[in-house]
Amino acid sequence: MTTLPSYDEATGFDVVPRRVSRKARGVDAVFEHSARAIGASVLVITGGVGLFLGWQAYPTLSRYGLDFFTESRWLPEEDVVGIAAVLTGTVSIALVAMAFAFPLALLTALYISEYAPERIKSTLVAMVDLMAAVPSIVYGLWGYLLIMPRAGELAQWLHANLGWIPFFDIRGTDPDAAVPDASRYLYSSFAAGIAVAMMVLPMACAVMRQVFSQTPQGEKEAALALGATRWGMIRSVVLPFGRGGIIGGTMLGLGRALGETIAVVLIISPTFDVKWNLTEIGSNSVSAHIALQFGEASPAQLSALLAAGFVLFLITLLVNTLAAVVVNRSRSGAGTDA
Q1: According to the model, what pLDDT value does residue 334 have?
Q2: What is the CATH number of the domain that holds 75?
Q3: Helix 286-293 crosses helix 84-110 at what angle (to 10 degrees)?
Q4: Which of 154, 245, 246, 315 is exposed most, by the fewest CB atoms within 10 A?
């Protein structure tokens, strides 16, 4: 459609509508191209890491095939290499960590966003964010010196009272003995998972709190106006609205828990057994195994370690991608009519 100039009687000139261009110019163009270049560089770096690990892992995967995933022993001198034990340990440590971190992160995010007074809210946010800046070695020392003895006592109590559950049953020891073998309950996935939980808590809490803070104020006030209590408003409005943030934050925390290294190295006693007893001494993870074996690895062993790292890279990449998709798909008012 052609737009004709209109005559302005006040000025005596024809007024022509200004043509609006969607093309960025000047500072906007610099910002757009810079952001695009940075985003592309992140994808290139991530893809490069994956390609490098895949290339280095190819000799090991082609030699051992599926046995690399089903074999639990790690005996390179006997040509027996597998990651079944370390994969099991990785998953068990991550699940223990999320079992502790998820409720703490959810309740902390709800308290900051809905209950905390405005004068201390910023301080609480800063304290939670500060937890993410604490080095891994500090959490590892804290877990080794303070948490592990207490976790051993808790593991012994779980064995005595919930030993009928396979996860808490430790064969060959009696928790009710006059002098129980306390060493059987230390250096376990359970103790390492508690330390890792404190490391993933800030990330999960930050995502949940951010999504909760975006809940439309009008929907919250409408629920209160209809007679709902504050908890009723949270249950019917805030939690359904933040469902995507809860799932996404939990999965992001799980992605970090799967790859945590230093804290796990300091706490666990490395073993190569596929065990489901979370509270028994002995465990391992892919990242901890790589850290312990990397310095003394031969070229063939190095390829096997990089193959294990490639598997862990794919797992964490998948978990984080799913988390990002879930967070991006969360929308206002989703499920509030439930």
Answers
A1: 44
A2: 1.10.3720.10
A3: 120
A4: 154
